[in-house]
Amino acid sequence: MIRASSAGSRSKKEHALREYRRAMAEHRHLVNYLEAAVKVLPEPECDLLWEFAEISKGKCERLRRALERRKHRSAA
After folding, report:
1. pLDDT value of position 11
2. Rounded to the nearest 5°, which phi and psi values hold at 33?
3. What is the phi-psi region of residue 2: left when phi exceeds 0, alpha when psi lies from -120 to 50, beta otherwise?
4. Radius of gyration (Cα) for the chain, nearest Å?
5. Chain CA centroid to CA 64, Å
6. What rounded mean pLDDT belongs to the chain?
């Protein structure tokens, strides 16, 4: 039976961290755009942007929890 190397798990951790950082940047862009758009766009469009920002926030939280679980597993 072939054992997985620690390098494989390290690359998964790096991939997860990179994905989390990308999601955080996307969320920041959406929130900045929403703050600017509130003054210009009608309410229905702002509500739609708000929904996208909430979805993005949930994705960031989900990825952060996954990273924390991975960190706790590797510490044990």
Report:
1. 79
2. -65, -40
3. beta
4. 18
5. 7
6. 87
Domains in the chain: boundaries: 50-76
Which element (helix H / strand E) includes 74? helix 43-75
Question: Please, what is the end-to-end C-alpha distance for the chain in angstroms?
Answer: 24
Q: Which of 70, 69, 47, 67 is nearest to 59 (CA)?
A: 67
Note whether 49 and 37 are within 8 A (CB).
Answer: yes
For residue 2, the model assigns a pLDDT of: 56
Amino acid at 73: R
* Contacts for 62-67: CB closer than 8 Å, 24+ residues apart: 63/16, 63/19, 63/20, 63/23, 64/20, 66/16, 67/13, 67/16, 67/17, 67/20
Examine the pLDDT at 14 and tell me if it is beyond 80.
yes
The single residue listed with the structure tokens 């960031």 is: 60
